[in-house]
């Protein structure tokens, strides 16, 4: 979302007038947010579908996404022929953190329901507020804290449901829920790092390098901890298609 916020600041509609321009900018940001939400919901659906089909390959699912980022944005970066504005090892760290978040959340689909995983993924908001307050000096209004608190209360209700109070879906729903929460910590670290780099440096460089190093980290981890699972998968058109969409 940091990329979208940064992008919208550069748009201008002088013919609308100042007041209408501000309104349309807000509506445009809301539209982008809903678009991102739709894409994330689609990705969650494909992850859940692949898990239900018996494929336990969370790292492989993320590999295709990182490869696409590296190819598209990396091509733009190569065309520009510019030197990196941020040292490569920071991108390696950022990529490593992001891969762990995706691994834990994708792994959670093996144990919990798509509804619980998708809702609990919002724990990222709470962690981001804490991290940006500490490291980026961002300050929030009481209403923003109230909204975050309401979200956390709702997430607590999901945990209680999956613990058995209301019944949860999946083979081990509570274990899956804690995997998601662990993943959101890594996502928050990654998001805050991306926001800092995007605002201070170049957006194309950040996305391309994140994709490249996360792809390399994924390959390394697949070779170590997911190779046997890949060999056991019976590749069908549904699994292949879902993996590519993811």
UniProtKB/TrEMBL annotation:
It is a multi-pass membrane protein. Keywords: Membrane, Transmembrane, Transmembrane helix, Transport. It comes from the Eukaryota. It is found in: Membrane. The chain crosses the membrane at residues 26-51, 63-79, 86-105, 111-136, 143-161, 173-192, 204-225. GO terms for molecular function: transmembrane transporter activity. InterPro entries: EmrE-like, SLC35_F1/F2/F6, SLC35F_Transporter. One of its GO terms (cellular component) is membrane. Belongs to the SLC35F solute transporter family. This is OLC1v1034252C1. It comes from Oldenlandia corymbosa var. corymbosa.
């Amino acid at each position: 979302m940091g990329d979208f916020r940064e992008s919208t600041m550069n748009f201008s509609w002088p013919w609308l007038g100042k007041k209408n321009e501000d309104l349309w900018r807000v509506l445009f940001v809301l539209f982008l947010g809903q678009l991102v939400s739709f894409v994330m919901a689609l990705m969650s659906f494909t992850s859940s579908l692949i898990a239900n089909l018996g494929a336990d390959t969370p790292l492989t699912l993320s590999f295709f996404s990182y490869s696409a980022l590296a190819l598209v944005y990396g091509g733009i970066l190569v065309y520009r022929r510019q030197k990196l504005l941020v040292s490569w090892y920071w991108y390696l760290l950022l990529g490593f953190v992001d891969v762990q978040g995706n691994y834990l959340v994708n792994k959670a689909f093996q144990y919990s329901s798509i509804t619980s995983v998708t809702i609990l993924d919002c724990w990222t908001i709470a962690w981001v507020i804490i991290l940006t307050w500490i490291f980026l000096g961002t300050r929030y209004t009481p209403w923003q804290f109230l909204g975050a608190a309401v979200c956390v209360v709702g997430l607590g209700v999901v945990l209680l449901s999956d613990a058995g109070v209301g019944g949860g879906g999946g083979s081990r729903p509570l274990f899956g829920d804690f995997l998601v929460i662990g993943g959101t910590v890594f996502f928050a670290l990654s998001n805050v790092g991306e926001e800092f780099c995007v605002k201070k440096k170049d957006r194309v460089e950040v996305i391309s390098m994140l994709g490249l190093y996360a792809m390399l980290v994924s390959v390394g981890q697949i070779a170590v901890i997911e190779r046997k699972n890949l060999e056991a998968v019976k590749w069908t058109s549904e699994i292949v298609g879902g993996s590519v969409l993811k």
